[in-house]
Input
Amino acid sequence: MISSESNYSNTVEVNGVSFQTEIQSVILVPLLPWTKNPVKLGIHVTNNTLNYLYFERLDSLVPLPTLIDSNGNLIEIDCDMLRLRVKGKPYYSVASRESKFFSFETFLSRRFFKLQLKIYNEAGGFFYFRNLNYGKHQLQISYKKTGLLPILLPEERASARAWAGEVTIPFVDFCIG
Output
């Protein structure tokens, strides 16, 4: 596995593919209890190889995301992976020299005075960070895949290659407020 950091401090390249986490810089707190605000969160992927690559989606965040609060404390993560559903195809595909944004459906919700960041996983469950406070936070995402090809049509399979590797993308900052 070949790994290098690019010119951007939060971009890492592994096996010919660049990964960069993106999260909106300021996440607004819902005004009313039991409401939620959408959050832009995902991974920019740039295929720097000469091959068309496939990336697995199911349970794609392994190990689990890491979140640190403004005091440097690690915030525990909970997960629920009991529901099995997949929206769309169970894989991402990225052509040679192409970039795509792998978006995670994410919300900041408010339960009375408690804030919770909820990240849906591709298996229909979710990861969530509870009891968040206002202020600066740092998020780190890892992605690990075996390189097994998904079930494809015969014409897709001829030129298909599945990306294999493990990447830990550097922390990105955001603020809840």
Observations:
- The first strand starts at residue 3 and ends at 5.
- Residues 34 and 147 are 40 Å apart (CA to CA).
- The longest helix spans residues 154-157.
